[in-house]
Amino acid sequence: MEGKRPKIAVFGCTGMLGWALLDALPRSGFEAVPIPEDKVDIRDAEAVENAVAAAAPAAVINAAAYTDVDGCESNVELARAVNADGAANIARAASDARAALIHISTDYVFGGGRKMPLLESEPANPQGVYANTKWEGEKAVRQEGGRWFIIRTSWLFGPNGRNFVDTMLRLGSEREEISVVNDQEGSPTYTVHLAAGIARLLDLYISRGFGEPGIYHLTAAGHCDWHEFASRIFEARPGRVKNVKPISTYDYIESAGRPIAPRPAYSVLNCDKIKKKFGIALPRWEVGLMEFLDSKTIQPK
Ligand SMILES: NC(=O)c1ccc[n+]([C@@H]2O[C@H](COP(=O)([O-])OP(=O)(O)OC[C@H]3O[C@@H](n4cnc5c(N)ncnc54)[C@H](OP(=O)(O)O)[C@@H]3O)[C@@H](O)[C@H]2O)c1
Fold first, then answer.
1. CATH at 82
2. Which pLDDT band, with edges at 50, 70 and 90, does 37 fall under?
3. Cβ of 58: how many Cβ atoms within 10 Å?
4. Against a cut of 0.90, is the pTM above it?
């Protein structure tokens, strides 16, 4: 039976979302084929082509990216090579292998000017190097053709990667007061929930021949600003923290003492399309947060 499971090749499998995907895919009846960076650098078109051809997958997931949003500002070439050219390499290889593609993109393709949950059809307005190179990646995927899904998600947290929740927990063990910006709004999304949603999408599309490729938004339900997110973390795990101070993005940048990339003031994604077409909706962000915090709690013997 094992040999009959459709294969899903996963790029970025050592990252936060990739790790959750390797866990979720087998539970939806797939064989996950990890393609780690030490074997295949996605900037190398030939290596990507060979890896996908060798895996002969039913679908390829591109969860690989250069995700250091501030780091991208001073490493423009690397950001473009990974986020745009690497995305094109994977899309071409998937198309050549007649495999479907799930390309992971970001809420940061939007500029943040409009305070209404954003539809897939909303014009992009990326700000900063990370956002621009991810947008170029989306365009490259569309140009390569084949059966592609672009999944835009936001504010990821979960095991096995750098994320806001872990940063807050670390700071909370060191400080009594923490300043957090309160003028950027988004939907914090638990990677474990997102990976389950993507596995469900593949189950419907690959195993049951249901639904159409295209651009889909998929985040946790609900939204908040970073200050509210931090406050919820410290309510559950206070550490030494007595005061979570709201500050503006302007004040944060002034006090940072290092280059900070622009981020959208509002990037809440409207996820109605994927719910309507596939029946997929993720739990609220607070549920994801509590599950993630609980997963860290060491159970007494
Ligand atoms: N994190 C967020 O808040 C967020 C929000 C919205 C969308 N997204 C998108 O979601 C996806 C997954 O994000 P994530 O947070 O899980 O990322 P992550 O934890 O930073 O993992 C990125 C992965 O990409 C791999 N990678 C980087 N450069 C590579 C290269 N040249 N060749 C091959 N692999 C390479 C990394 O490998 P190594 O570990 O070996 O370096 C790692 O496995 C990305 O497309 C990201 O843009 C993320």
1. 3.40.50.720
2. confident
3. 20
4. yes
